[in-house]
Here is the input.
Amino acid sequence: MKSIKSFLKNLKVIKPIVEEICKVGGIPYLVGGSVRDLVMDIEVKDWDIEVHKISIEDLQKTLQKFGTVSLVGAKFGVFKFTGSKLKEILNLDLDWALPRRDTKGRKPKVEIDPTMTMKEACRRRDLTINAMAIDLCKLIENLDSIKNVSDVEIVDPFDGLKDLENKILRAVDEKLFEEDPLRFYRVMQFSGRFKMEPDKKLNEICKKIDLTLSLQGGEIARERIFEEIKKLFLKSKRPSIGFRWLKNLSRLKELFPELGALDGINQRKDYHPEIDAFEHTMQSLDASALISVEDEQEKFMIMLAVLCHDFGKALTTDETGKSKGHSIAGIELSKNFLKRLTDDRNLIKAIPKLVRYHRMPLALVDEGAKSKAYKRLAVKLSPDVTPKQLYWVSWCDIRGRNVEGHEPLQEGFRGGDKTLKTFLKKIKEFKVETGPEKPVLLGRHITDIVQPGPKMGKLLEKAYEIQIDEGITDVEELKQRVLKN
Here is the structure.
């Protein structure tokens, strides 16, 4: 198991700290998702260590022996090492916290209680798979004998290990779960991320939990909801599972109306053998989890665009299954959808453009378009998105057409991959893969004839049109052409 090797390597680095805490009477436990990931053989990058039987002052003094620490969550009692060699060596997110109780809502009242039992501390967790702990004092005593996760003693008061094995999501405490609406979105995230099924009781809780204010600045900040959605997208192989779960709960239209409106929209069978527009979107979304884009923010943007790309079909699909103008209709729908989720102006500007032009890669190739069409497309997309990003949206679109199951096609529908390869070849050939062609004629080239201002702007705009349409890249020739007119 790869995770246990990296875990033990990092543990050896922090072993002196753990030993010192144990020496002064504290008991540091690895808790929450850190334990879950270790058991699932996922590399533990975020270490949450909860220290019991010690005061906040003594914990701070102990940690300061090993580097500079900062109390990043004063009322929550959370410490981090900052600017220390330890942080550089570990290269992971390491929190040292004290056990606490907190009330519900956006501004919870927090009570730090070092005497809390581990079972009581685990009870405040959302799901049983996150309600496990490892006593690090005991662990380091036998560190050299540990070879596998099975050698690690796990504190598991609510049978999280059994639920992990059975791939079941179960609430630790039903009452506490209902008091925190964010936990609803965490179930959505975990169901897709780990392909796990909420049990019957958890589904019943999630059906009735009040979410009316969750995206309107009420019980929980929408930024936290958006972060759960981002985790669903970037950490799942099948992010559609989360949205399918919402549909099964009959809460999809309530929470994401633009997406819910696609359910039951029948498309033309010759283009969409999977028929239903919601099904197509879900398959396309799962395809987007597979795209070869390393930058997480860029990939997230593309995945969101794939989710939004056919919103317009709910407004434009006729009785024959044709959806003329759905790309344009989807512009405002996608904007409204995003504005309810985030204030990120880059996403709000970029995604509607990808929605508007998502059919263009196939259309340009099918029409045998010349270089100027590709160059004009790059200008229309700029500065928010690129033709290469648009390519990925189309790549996902042609894979969301599986009539025999819910997973995306491995190859594009009706030879679409070949068409898209041509599109990719063209945008590389015309040097617009990552943005529009740079203008050749600049203001400094004509300041001897025209003063800066509206007239110069129009001349430069005209020169750029000629450059793109006719492929002229000689400064003097462009200068003569625009001045002659």
About this structure: The mean pLDDT is 92.
